[in-house]
Design brief:
44% helix; binds iron/sulfur cluster; alpha/beta; five-stranded parallel beta sheet; Rossmann fold; binds zinc ion
Length: 457
């Protein structure tokens, strides 16, 4: 069993689950394929699935995440965590009213890929799927933020939008509980980083159950908060579930948090470390912090006032009465929608206007040598991905900030993330719509000689 999996911020990886050469410690019959060091178990596919589902069931029951009368909405992203969550919840609670939510964020080449995956999954599980099309409903897409000051914080804007939309969707379909796929590694990693920043408020929000701020809002639950990240992935592979296979262009160049890496290091000598930290935080630190906060509020008589956002009506505690999503969207609308893709005609008119245009061929050197747009430089995507910051700096130094960089590949899929990264780096990056194929179709010039090849930035 193998799966090509791509996680935001990491190069695609192939995950393989294969026999360990020993029998399963549960059934003692089948060959074990997964070792869980913290539990001192080696499990076969079936026993691992049972183990996983049992933990989800126990967690839901222990923390009273939902009851038989609740309508539970699972926020699907198409990534391994939410996919494993939906499947496991369906197995653990076959009679529960469960629905799935997906937000089409309009992220180029990515959102549509994920939509296909979540459709396939929900079809297979017989779960009703509600899709919220951001463009259709609100007139903008996440990519539009690339032209605002948030271009270097795309994931944070995206997270704010997603949270607001999920709450809105829950209201629309009458879901009383909203389940998300946060796993153990996310939870403990975020906890540690908040701890070092002294941000105890964020730590207390990492609890597995968050009651609604105002009545009528869904309760938020995290049934996988004590499931190690890798196990979500194994679960998806073993059960052959449809899952994301390419990564978000905005995660390009992002890296796994240093705290998560630190934890993985610590885990090598202490397989229990993540569970231990989770328990200290939730059982000791959070209750202590909440008590102090309560006392403080009583002493100063300053209570966090939650009101309805003047624009969208969702709860907010911001002093001006406009929630953080609506504030960001307002800024976006002021800017007017600029786009990251550009057609061959538009490139030509830019050149006619006298703009300095530099074509950046992101394909392999051999493809570039064979055929390219005249004057293009070759910056293979892998190379760029590997040392993005340096590449952007070099381009800026060599061509100047006013230059328009038009990235292209065969059809536009590979060049888009590079254009996005150039934008984030403060350069005017565009991706050529339809790539070199469409360029040629529209009568654009290409050169094919081997002579005078310039590679690199
Ligand atoms: Fe995920 Fe960030 Fe892409 Fe949003 S923008 S889908 S948070 S990687
Ligand atoms: Zn709002």
């Amino acid at each position: 069993m193998a799966l090509r999996y791509s996680k935001c911020g990491l190069p695609a990886m192939t995950v393989e689950v294969k026999g360990l050469g020993v029998r399963c410690s549960e059934c003692k019959r089948e060959e074990a394929v997964i070792e869980l060091k913290y539990a001192r178990k080696k499990l076969c596919p079936k026993c691992f699935t049972d183990f996983f589902v049992r933990r989800v069931k126990r967690t839901v029951e222990k923390y009273r995440m939902f009851g038989p009368k609740d309508r539970v909405a699972v926020a699907l992203s198409g990534g391994k965590d939410s996919v494993a969550l939906l499947d496991a919840l369906k197995r653990a609670f076959p009679d529960q009213d469960i629905v799935a939510f997906y937000i089409d964020l309009g992220i180029h080449h990515y959102s549509s890929h994920l939509k296909e995956k979540v459709k396939a999954l929900t079809d297979r599980l017989g779960v009703p799927l509600y899709i919220y099309d951001l463009k259709e409903r609100e007139g903008y897409v996440i990519d539009d933020f690339l032209t605002t000051k948030f271009r270097s914080k795309m994931c944070s804007v995206c997270g704010i939008v997603k949270r607001a939309v999920f709450t809105q969707m829950a209201k629309e379909v009458g879901a009383t509980v909203m389940a998300t796929g946060h796993n153990l590694d996310d939870t403990v990693g975020t906890m540690l980083s908040a701890f070092f920043a002294g941000d105890f408020e964020s730590i207390s929000r990492l609890r597995p159950v968050l009651k609604p701020l105002v009545p009528g809002q869904p309760k938020k639950v995290k049934p996988l908060f004590n499931t190690p990240e890798m196990e979500d992935l194994y679960y998806v592979v073993i059960n052959d579930l449809p899952v994301q296979e390419c990564h978000c262009p905005h995660s390009f160049g992002a890296s796994v948090s240093k705290y998560k890496r630190m934890l993985d290091e610590m885990e090598k000598s202490n397989p229990n470390v993540k569970f231990q930290l989770l328990s200290v935080f939730l059982k000791k630190l959070v209750p202590m912090y909440e008590k102090v906060k309560e006392m403080e509020e009583e002493r100063t008589q300053v209570f966090l006032e939650v009101k309805e956002c003047k624009v969208c009506g969702l709860p907010t505690s911001s002093p001006d009465g406009i929630c953080s999503r609506c504030r960001r969207v307002a800024m976006l609308k002021e800017r007017g929608g600029q786009k990251v893709e550009i057609s061959a005609e538009e490139v030509r008119s830019l050149m006619e206007e006298g703009k300095r245009v530099v074509f950046v061929d992101v394909r392999s050197p051999s493809a570039y040598r064979m055929e390219r747009i005249p004057g293009a430089i070759n910056v293979p995507k892998e190379e760029f991905e590997f040392n993005q910051r340096k590449a952007i700096k070099k381009l800026r130094r060599k061509y100047g900030k006013g230059t328009v960089f038009v990235t292209y590949c065969y059809a536009g899929r590979e060049s888009y993330p590079v254009a996005v990264a150039l934008r984030r780096g403060g350069l005017k990056g565009y991706s050529l719509l339809g790539g070199i194929s469409e360029w040629k179709e529209k009568g654009g010039e290409v050169e094919t000689s081997d002579a005078e090849v310039k590679t690199g930035t």
